[in-house]
Amino acid sequence: MVFSFTSRVQVDRMGLSRGASCLLLLWLMTISHQQDVTCRFTADLVFLIDGSNSWGQRNFDRIIAGVAGAVDSLTFGPNDVRVGAVLFSSNVEDVLDLQTNATDFQQGLMSFDYPDETTYTNLAIEKGIELLFRNPRENVAKILVIVTDGASMSPEQTAYQAAVARSRGIEILGVGIGLDNTTELASLTTGGNQIIEVDILTEFAEQLRIFTNLAILSSSCVKEIVKQGMWKFEI
Fold first, then answer.
1. Is Signal a UniProt keyword of this protein (predicted)?
2. Which residues pair with 198 in a beta bridge?
3. Against a cut of 0.85, is the pTM above it?
């Protein structure tokens, strides 16, 4: 995987600016070299994409394009990164199984139709768990990224499904777009704080790209360093 941090965007909720992100990467490379640790960037990642009526068609199209662009720098493959997606609204509207080819993922994503209904995030998390464990790989990070602009219609069920996911070792991240209140979204995530807020849609693709890269970096490389080198590092 190639990391390229080219924007001035700050990933506020993770406390990582572009410079801090680069320092984190350099730190990992240095420690990996000193400890003779090989960090292979592997993960199974599923985007849970809100298709509710608050977007409008134009903004929904921009969200889909942003998610498609966020994976450009990932190394897809059966032994590298696999990426899938769930489109949700009142129901699970569309599902893209874990893909081992970036073009296949992006083309599948672009075929999603805007459902223009409500926000049942619990159904998306449940489906995301199913995808991640359909053909699981051992010792590979499993990540759900919730992309939403509003609260779920069933908060209790959503909290329950998130707890189930976390109990099964799935890392949950949140991307809140134009949210007035991020409390619920943050509470769903690993540690209750793995969230970024995006106020301007033109910044969405770049912020999501950085966030996704860092998630895979921290889930694969840091864990390998901790396991082999007895280091403790938390983002």
1. yes
2. 177
3. no
